[in-house]
């Protein structure tokens, strides 16, 4: 019998984008005359503990003393944290619902603010392990329960030893207390979560670095909201490009490399390219860029890129014909929309298709030569595999056909092989 899997997930800077006690300090000390100095001290204690340079118990005690917080402040904090859930956790709520019995939140934070945040993602209250505050009759936070193992140095290790779970345990977190679980031998693998913060001392000790929860689900072949993690999509930026353009692409989760030229080592592996005005791509480079899906050009691409060749290879090009400075953001946005939804609106070489995202479905893109009979073959493949089509959109020009199909989430993955092998197929991919 296959052993049961358990997923041990940290809260601060993992499930949420922030350190909750730091945020609580900003709320509780808002009117304090020395708030900036106290904020800095609290953050220092946090980082020292996360990097393993100060015992967790000492760090926690010092931070709680400095907070001067109340239950009313906690209510404000919960509102903030609900808006600060890490994007990759938020979009994978369906995973938590399906695996509710196997997901454990184990944190040195406090149940009072953790439970209201994670419970909305189908995580069971009995699977939330964290510290608890001690308050006075009028709601002031004065201490915490020192008998809880999670309040101590090595607390996560002590707790998991007491629980003695039977099965394979996987830990996901950003700090030293998470790595300690791996060091103790209690968990099978430790995944350093770096979507919000990357601590070098932790990253170098991890079994796997996961820049998003999508990556964790992908490498473990678990159900997920998007088929392929964005951190695995290489976006190459060439030339003198406005930092705002780069930041927009980076914020959406793509793996960014900013170079002065199209270096040979990237030709075969690049998925997206953003080029400064004046930069060129040769026909030979285009021919060998077999994974390239979209190009953004911050100027006119005329005589710089062969648009017809891009079309023939299924590469969608967005360009700024008038060199409008505002398009430093507009062009990257078009690229992002295409990668996320398949939208080709305002592209220079593809049929214009603008689509909404449809929930609880997978979106498939099929680009092919515009010859008779292709759609019949595509839909025959869907019928053969008993696929329920939720929606289908087709646009053509003289050279190509561009079809997007939304299908039910349950499907036989052999379908993909069929679609790729259809004669005259140029490119096929799954968006989400």
From TrEMBL:
GO biological processes: L-serine biosynthetic process
EC number(s) per entry: 1.1.1.399, 3.1.3.3
SUPFAM superfamilies: ACT-like (SSF55021), Formate/glycerate dehydrogenase catalytic domain-like (SSF52283), HAD-like (SSF56784)
UniProt GO cellular component terms: cytoplasm
Catalyzed reactions: O-phospho-D-serine + H2O = D-serine + phosphate; (R)-2-hydroxyglutarate + NAD(+) = 2-oxoglutarate + NADH + H(+); O-phospho-L-serine + H2O = L-serine + phosphate
GO MF annotation terms: L-phosphoserine phosphatase activity; magnesium ion binding; NAD binding; oxidoreductase activity, acting on the CH-OH group of donors, NAD or NADP as acceptor
PROSITE patterns the record matches: ACT
Lineage per the UniProt record: Bacteria, Pseudomonadati, Bacteroidota, Sphingobacteriia, Sphingobacteriales
The protein's role, per its UniProt record: Catalyzes the reversible oxidation of 3-phospho-D-glycerate to 3-phosphonooxypyruvate, the first step of the phosphorylated L-serine biosynthesis pathway. Also catalyzes the reversible oxidation of 2-hydroxyglutarate to 2-oxoglutarate.
Names of the cofactor(s): Mg(2+)
InterPro entries documented for this protein: ACT-like_dom_sf, ACT_dom, AHAS_small-like_ACT, D-isomer_2_OHA_DH_cat_dom, HAD-like_SerB, HAD-like_sf, HAD_sf
Coiled coil: none
Pathway this chain belongs to: Amino-acid biosynthesis; L-serine biosynthesis; L-serine from 3-phospho-D-glycerate: step 3/3
Species: Pedobacter nyackensis
Keywords in alphabetical order: Amino-acid biosynthesis, Hydrolase, Magnesium, Metal-binding, Serine biosynthesis
Keyword Membrane: no
Domain ACT: from-to ranges: 363-432
Protein name: D-3-phosphoglycerate dehydrogenase
Any matching Pfam family: HAD
CDD domains the UniProt entry points to: ACT_3PGDH (cd04901)
């Amino acid at each position: 019998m296959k052993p049961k899997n358990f997923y041990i997930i940290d809260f601060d800077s993992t499930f949420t984008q922030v350190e909750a006690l730091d945020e609580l300090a900003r709320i509780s000390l808002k009117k304090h005359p020395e708030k900036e100095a106290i904020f800095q001290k609290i953050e220092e204690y946090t980082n020292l503990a996360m990097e393993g340079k100060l015992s967790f118990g000492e760090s926690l005690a010092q931070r709680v003393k400095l907070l001067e917080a109340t239950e009313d402040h906690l209510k404000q904090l919960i509102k903030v944290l609900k808006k600060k859930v890490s994007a990759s956790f938020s979009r994978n709520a369906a995973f938590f619902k399906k695996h509710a019995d196997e997901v454990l939140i184990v944190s040195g934070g406090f149940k009072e603010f953790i439970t209201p945040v994670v419970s909305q993602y189908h995580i069971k209250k009995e699977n939330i392990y964290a510290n608890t505050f001690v308050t006075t009759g009028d709601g002031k936070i004065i201490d915490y329960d020192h008998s809880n193992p999670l309040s101590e140095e090595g607390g996560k290790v002590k707790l998991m030893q007491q629980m003695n779970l039977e099965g394979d345990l996987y830990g996901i977190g950003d700090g030293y207390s998470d790595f300690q679980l791996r060091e103790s031998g209690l968990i099978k693998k430790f995944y350093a979560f770096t979507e919000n913060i990357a601590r070098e001392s932790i990253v170098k000790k991890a079994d796997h670095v996961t820049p998003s929860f999508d990556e964790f689900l992908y490498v473990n072949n678990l159900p997920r909201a998007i088929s392929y993690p964005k951190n695995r999509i290489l976006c190459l930026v060439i030339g003198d490009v406005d930092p705002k353009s780069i930041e927009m692409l980076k914020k959406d989760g793509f793996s960014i490399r900013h170079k002065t030229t199209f270096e040979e080592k990237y030709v075969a592996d690049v998925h997206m390219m953003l080029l400064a005005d004046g930069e060129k791509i040769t026909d030979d480079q285009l021919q060998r860029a077999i994974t390239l899906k979209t190009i953004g050009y911050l100027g006119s691409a005329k005589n710089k890129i062969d648009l017809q060749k891009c079309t023939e290879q299924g590469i969608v090009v967005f360009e700024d014909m008038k060199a409008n400075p505002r398009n430093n953001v507009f062009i990257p946005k078009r690229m992002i929309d295409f990668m996320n939804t398949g939208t080709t609106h305002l592209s220079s070489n593809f049929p214009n298709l603008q689509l909404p995202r449809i929930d609880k479905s997978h979106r498939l893109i099929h680009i092919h030569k515009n010859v008779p009979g292709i759609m019949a073959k595509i839909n025959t493949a869907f019928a053969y595999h008993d696929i329920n089509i939720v929606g289908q959109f087709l646009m053509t020009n003289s050279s190509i056909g561009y079809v997007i199909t939304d299908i039910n989430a349950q499907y036989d993955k052999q379908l993909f092989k069929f679609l790729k092998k259809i004669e005259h197929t140029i490119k096929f991919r799954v968006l989400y």
